[in-house]
């Protein structure tokens, strides 16, 4: 079953974000994934759940839950976590399609 991984981000450091962004796609591809969409949030219509602020998003796609887990827990991606932590606050979740 195909899985989408959605990231909601509040950017803190543009330089660190550019460094992270230039490398993260390669790690996604190693685990059969693809970056499908990314962009800025134009308008937030409702926030009844009280989600933390975010101003940008990314949508990844993986062939399976196992591939998404393998990517998220991979040594390749974990090497980027310190850069990611400097660049942004992140909420990352998956949805099965």
SS-derived structural category: alpha+beta
Q: Within the CATH hierarchy, at the fold level, what is the topology? A: Alpha-Beta Plaits
Q: Which strand order do you get reading across the main beta sheet?
A: 2-3-1-4
* Elements, N to C (H/E): EHEEHHHE
- Summed up, the helix count is 4
The portion of residues assigned to helices is 25-40%
Sheet with most strands:
4 strands, antiparallel
CATH class: Alpha Beta
Mean pLDDT, as a whole number? 96
* Unreliable stretches covering 5 or more consecutive residues: none
| Alpha carbon gap, first and last residue | 7 Å
Describe what you observe in this structure.
It is a single chain. With 97 residues, the chain is of the alpha+beta class. It has a single domain (3-41, 54-96), classed as Alpha-Beta Plaits, CATH 3.30.70. Helices cover 37% and strands 33% of the residues. It has four helices and four strands. The protein has helices spanning 14-30, 65-72, 75-78, 81-87; strands spanning 3-11, 34-40, 56-62, 88-96. The protein has a four-stranded antiparallel β-sheet with strand order 2-3-1-4. Helix 1 runs antiparallel to helix 4 (81-87). The chain is globular, with a radius of gyration of 13 Å.
């Amino acid at each position: 079953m195909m899985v989408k991984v959605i990231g909601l981000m509040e950017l803190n450091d543009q330089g660190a974000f550019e460094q992270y962004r230039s490398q993260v796609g390669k790690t996604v591809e190693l685990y059969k994934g693809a970056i499908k969409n990314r962009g800025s949030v134009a308008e937030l219509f409702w926030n009844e759940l009280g989600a933390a602020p975010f101003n940008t998003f990314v949508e990844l796609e993986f062939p399976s839950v196992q591939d998404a887990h393998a990517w998220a827990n991979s040594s390749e991606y974990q090497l980027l976590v310190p850069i990611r932590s400097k660049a942004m606050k992140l909420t990352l979740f998956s949805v099965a399609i």
